Amino acid sequence: MKDKTQKLFYILGAFFIANAMLAEFIGVKIFSLESVFGMQPLKMSLFGFHDLSFNLTAGVLLWPIVFIMTDIINEYFGTKGVRFLSFTAAGLIAYSFFMISLSIKLPGADFWLTRQTAAGVVNMDLSYSAIYGQGLWIIIGSLVAFLVGQLIDVTVFHIFKKRTGHAMIWLRATGSTLVSQLVDSFVVLFIAFYIGAGWSLGLVLVIGLMNYIYKFTIAIVLTPLLYLVHNIIDRYLGKELSKQLMDEASAQG
Question: Which of 205, 207, 143, 217 shows the shortest CA–CA distance to 177?
Fold first, then answer.
């Protein structure tokens, strides 16, 4: 039984950390959500800002999964498990950015520096630096937002769980995600672009609101996935061990 518990924590933790790290690295790409569905940009006006559309970082593909994993880990391993994995992930992300910054400074081999593509000749060294060389303020903002979001998520999750017990998974999981992502959406922009790039506070708030609308919608849509993962884990552990873990996790809150 204990071996099953350890295996479950290892699998959930590995998937959690892998998704968090991938989200950071693919987040450098900005895509148009409207174009994904074959639509024209919405070009909305909001609080005096015009031509607003859902231009999002590719990291939004994975961050909802990260927050779902946070809630699942919280359900079975409590606040200690989530905090341990959150700080581990943040440390590994920081380490990865440090190693990438060193790799950018390495002189490229002559045969590698240029490459012929359908779009023309590409300078591989400049492309590598442009893709992986995220600004310091963006890195700081994303790490701070990640940790703050995780700590808020675990706190709100247990506030709901004290009132609902083991029932109403959707309320504590989706509710905590909606609150934590609200904070996450604005913290990263405030640090990276208000402090780091000199954006106006109004622009930061409007872009943050646009991002949160997307995250809010995805959090609701993915709620059934929580129940699917929950059922798979319960079958793997068995009812007795599953209840024991959830009781111990609740006691931590």
Answer: 217
CA 77 to chain centre: 20
Q: pTM value?
A: 0.87
How large is the average pLDDT for residues 74-86? Answer: 93
**CA angle 55-60-66, nearest 5°?**
165
- One-letter amino acid at 234 equals D
The predicted-structure confidence for 49-78, as pLDDT tens digits, reads as follows: 788 888 888 888 888 888 889 999 999 999
Query: Residue 2: what pLDDT?
Result: 60
Say how far apart CA 117 and CA 114 lie, in whole Å: 10
Which tokens is 62 given?
């994975």
* CA angle (85, 89, 92) in 5-degree steps: 140
Dig out the tokens for 240 from the structure: 């007795």
Nearest to 17 by CA among 77, 51, 62, 50: 62
Residues pairing with 32 in the sheet: 55
Residue 231 makes CB contacts below 8 A (sequence gap 6+) with: none
* Spatial separation of the C-alpha atoms in residues 153 and 223, rounded to whole Å: 15
Distance of CA 89 to the CA centre of its chain: 11
**Alpha carbon of 169 to those of 173, 174, 206, 224, 227: distances in Å?**
6, 8, 31, 10, 8
- Reported as a single tens digit per residue, the pLDDT across 156-215 is 988 888 887 777 888 888 888 889 988 888 998 899 888 988 888 888 888 888 888 888
56 DSSP β-pair partners: 31
